[in-house]
Amino acid sequence: MPRVLLKVHHPSLSPVGVDEVVANNVIGNNVGNFAFSYAAERALSAPENEVTAVATGSLFATPEVVNREYDHVVMPLANHFRASNIKALERQAKAMEQFTIPVTVLGVGGQASLDGEVPADEREAVEQATRRFVRAVLERGPSIGVRGEFTKSYLVDLGFDADRVDVIGCPSLYLHGGTVPLHLPDAIDPQGPLAINVSPYVTAMGPILVENLRRYPGMTYFGQDIRTLKLLVEGKALPGDDPQLPLRPDHPAFAAGRTVFPLSMPVWMSELGRRQLSLGTRIHGNIVSLLAGTPAIVLAHDSRTLELARYHQIPHRQISELAPADLAVRDLV
Fold first, then answer.
1. What global pTM score does this model have?
2. Taking all residues of the chain, what is their mean pLDDT, rounded to a whole number?
3. How many CB atoms lie within 10 A of CB 80?
């Protein structure tokens, strides 16, 4: 029986309470991480496999233990190739260089602006860490699975063979196999339930959020990041002073009954399954909506969201191209 070590922030099939999330950040800053780890864990959990789904930091510090106790390492990832993640890339590459077992990476991506630009002062360090990480993966497997054409082009430009870089999208969208159970409403009821998700650092989402909360009484804000959860639990404001973004407890998004923060995939899917439509900048928030059967519109604000929306043919608009009149649901659908 193959012994598979699956890298996750928290075993997605195990319940987790809000106190533990706040104390230990087991969502890895964003509950969107649960989407692809949940799908990967379910896909691998066949009777013939012995799957250990854990946070791998301590195990990767002892590669000899990994070599002895497992037969394969699987790493479902997201926007891994970025400046804020260089230490993790280096740490994981160092561990993999000592592995004697196969490694499979699923859905890894780069991070850049919508125009594909990375800040000049970050580019060299990110490229160096990315080369080391990808080289270690390809020395232990036939290919690496990336989330879109942007990331594939990035790795090819770094010198890797195009035939060993497979565009596979995000593992989360294979939860139901090759399809999603989509139910299209005949029309959007302005009084009915709707969902919006926001990256609270994307300034352009401020007026979109405020306008849709004002216009649609059934609009619910779905929070995803650890700072928003701490705001809900402890009342701690997020960094920034934009009054239109959900940064403070007195924002209209946090009015009674208007915010949901899911801590498991079944709850997340159940809540979004009750909505007519989901929209916003959070790629996994909208993917989970599709998995729940609810249509979604991605408001792409960077390369990572845009390449996934394009690859999986998810309805999307580039947020930089939206006109002031295109703020409400009825203008976007």
1. 0.96
2. 95
3. 23
